[in-house]
Amino acid sequence: MNYYSTNNKNTSVSFKEAVIQGLPADNGLFMPQQIPQLIDEFFKELPNLNISEIAHLVLANFVGDSIPEEELWKIINKTFIFEFPLVQIDDKKFALELYHGPSYAFKDVGARFLAFCLDYFYKDQDEKCTILVATSGDTGGAVASAFAETDNIEVVILYPSGKVSELQEKQLTTFEKNVTALEIDGDFDDCQRLVKSAFLDEELRKQKMISSANSINVARFLPQSIYYFLPYQYFSHKDKIAFSVPSGNYGNLTAGLFAKQMGLPIHQFVAAANKNDTVPRYLLNGIFEPHPTVATYSNAMDVSIPSNFLRMKDMFSLEEMQQLIKGYSFSDEETLDTMQSVFKNEEYLLDPHGAVGYAALKAHEQKNEYDFGLLLETAHPCKFIDVVNKVTKEDIYPEEAKALMQKQKSSIKMKADYEQFKQFLLR
Ligand SMILES: *Cc1c(COP(=O)(O)O)cnc(C)c1O
């Protein structure tokens, strides 16, 4: 399987090159040249397959001959090490909990698959590759814990001092060996600027092999299509199932669109957004018109120019998108109301991102358009404890998270100064 760029259909690179490059040089996004069709036999067998078997049957098509069969099994077995429980909330609605991985958010799936693919690709190099990541919170934890398990890669994580939660900070700063956390005296934009400067610095790049773990990497979103298959182990193929996807960069939703294109009978997608609602507005009026980004309770979705929109546009016309995807957007007040009422009436605790997804599912249910509504619950409520404490003061931290909070933080403090950052990288 080869990949083209959304800006140039004549580009043709292997899975390996697409993963290592991350972004095509023409600033488009990589897309597979075709979406493989899964055969009837696969769907007949689906209820009997475990998640690694599903992942292997699906992902082998996209990986092609970039990774030998046996190595791909190893990568998949290391990626899908946690559960994805389907929890019933009421008669028609379920939560597919994607947050039982090491960083308590669904980003673990993509970060782990990417980390182990890169680890395999870099195994024969003399020099270790260094991954640079700027994080405002959620991505960093997933990337740090995934790459901590690699042998051939160093990771440098830059985060804004005092601007991430205590749990998030511990998720960034408690690894030894190959993961270094730089605590930057500045904000997230400063962190991103330092990383960008490094990628543009020819002199640095001659001396050091650097790469990114960017969320638009094909190895990050493709494995996210796997969990869409799991509910069909319980439901019939005739059931009309709607998936509500709390969305920011639309990587998770795009992964679902891929699952559908491969033949999974998904009836409807519900794009659930907070007040950063560029895509829901686009679905209504066909105009892509980003507004300035606003801060919300569901801050991992505070994105007004979603990067994966390019992939969605590449796959579907506006009319097709309007058929497939219904968009909804909610305020912080509605998000909190949803958390409170679902906790009180259904005894289910949503995190703010899941709450936006639930609200969208409920709004869509009123149109009577699905048999079952599935919400992708993208993060554990303990990751957003300030908002969750407005709903309940119960102790909701998993044991592992408590143990993590007890650990000693280890970070290197640094000014938001490129020369200092460069000296550090060349140390
Ligand atoms: C990243 C993230 C999202 C948004 O996912 P996209 O793939 O960017 O749309 C939603 N919820 C949580 C908790 C996240 O970390």
SSE class: alpha/beta
Return the CATH topology of the domain at 78-105 and 221-396. Answer: Rossmann fold
Q: Characterize the main sheet.
A: 6 strands, mixed
Mean of residue pLDDT values: 94
CA-based gyration radius: 21 Å
Strand residue percentage = 15-25%
Could you say what the CATH architecture of the domain at 78-105 and 221-396 is? 3-Layer(aba) Sandwich
Shape: globular
Distance between the termini: 39 Å
User: Count of helical segments?
Assistant: 19
What does this structure look like?
This is Threonine synthase. It comes from Marivirga atlantica. Residues 97-367 form the Tryptophan synthase beta chain-like PALP domain. It catalyses: O-phospho-L-homoserine + H2O = L-threonine + phosphate. It holds the Pfam family Thr_synth_N. By secondary structure, the protein is of the alpha/beta class. The chain has a domain at 78-105 and 221-396: Rossmann fold (3-Layer(aba) Sandwich), CATH 3.40.50. Helices cover 41% and strands 17% of the residues. It has 19 helices and 14 strands. The strands form 3 sheets. It has a 6-stranded mixed sheet with strand order 4-5-13-10-11-12, sandwiched between helices. The chain has a 5-stranded parallel sheet with strand order 9-6-7-8-14, sandwiched between helices. A 3-stranded antiparallel sheet has the order 2-1-3. Strand 6 (129-134), helix 6 (138-147) and strand 7 (153-160) form a beta-alpha-beta unit. Helix 3 (51-63) crosses helix 4 (69-79) and helix 5 runs parallel beside helix 6 (138-147). It is globular and about 60 Å long. It starts with a strand and ends with a helix. The model has no long low-confidence stretch (mean pLDDT 94). The chain binds pyridoxal-5'-phosphate. Pyridoxal-5'-phosphate (PLP) binds at residues 105, 107, 138, 246-252, 300-301, 353, 378-379. Pyridoxal-5'-phosphate binds at residues 105, 107, 138, 246-252, 300-301, 353, 378-379.
